[in-house]
Amino acid sequence: MFVVGGDGDGFSIGGGHLPHAARRNPDITYMIIDNGIYGLTKGQVSPTSPMGMVSGTTPFGLEDPPLDPLPMLLSYGVSFVARGFSSDVKQVSKLVQAAVAHPGFSIVHLVSPCPTFNQVITFDFMKERVSPISEDHDPTDIAAAFRLALNQERFYTGVFYRNPNLPTMEQKLEHQRKLTMDRQPRSLEQLFAQF
Ligand SMILES: Cc1ncc(C[n+]2csc(CCOP(=O)(O)OP(=O)(O)O)c2C)c(N)n1
Ligand SMILES: [Mg+2]
To answer: Given ligand 1 and candidates 41, 44, 46, which is best to mutate, with the most ligand atoms within 8 Å of its CB?
Structure first.
């Protein structure tokens, strides 16, 4: 299954669901398209809007700091975490393919500037900061993934973390189904014996 949503959907409006989806590890790829604004509703600040942003809901500038999606997703235990920048279509397509191939919950955080409502996080602003993760990064190393995610100098893109060995929600459901079936009585005598 492939799910697409915005930064408001993923980190605010539906933000309470995300850590629990991560714990269940369903075989879903979720692309969070982050433009740092509530775009559809015409420009209110979102959880990833930068401080100082002037918007319909913050006419004198936003005073709250933004959430930092990558360290959050890693803390939640999302079993595949990648980040892309919408200008680099080739890289994004590789990240999406890797995410879809991953067994379990995979998130692609896609930074995608909104030219209409966000005049702070623009394509030019992002282009100066984006760096692809170096090829020698080991994506099974969660501490290394956190270090890249917490780096404030560069805005890394690529696969930060993957753990293909966690049981998926589908595997866990099948396990529960088998346990339930094993306990089903096979005869009337077995059924009566349960009471
Ligand atoms: C629970 C709930 N609250 C509010 C809304 C109204 N609403 C629809 S889209 C939206 C903004 C979504 O922003 P984001 O997820 O960042 O997506 P974007 O439009 O920027 O792509 C809001 C507040 C809603 N649909 N559901
Ligand atoms: Mg948005």
So the answer is: 41
Rounded CA gap, 158 and 130, in Å? 10
In tens digits, the chain (195 residues) has pLDDT values of 999 999 999 999 999 999 999 999 999 999 999 999 999 999 999 999 999 999 999 999 999 999 999 999 999 999 999 999 999 999 999 999 999 999 999 999 999 999 999 999 999 999 999 999 999 999 999 999 999 999 999 999 999 999 999 999 999 999 999 999 888 888 999 889 888
Ligand 1 close to Cβ of residue 7 (< 6 A): yes
The amino acid sitting at 51 is M
Query: Which of 40, 49, 109, 114 is the pocket-test mutation for ligand 1 (most atoms within 8 Å of CB)?
Result: 40
First-to-final CA distance of the chain: 42
**What single string gives the DSSP state of each residue in 57-100?**
S-TT---SPPP-HHHHHHHHT-SEEEEEETT-HHHHHHHHHHHH
- CA 142 to CA 154: how far, in whole Å? 18
Segments of the chain assigned E as strands: 2-6, 29-34, 80-85, 106-111, 130-132, 155-162
State whether CATH 3.40.50.970 applies to domain 2-166: yes
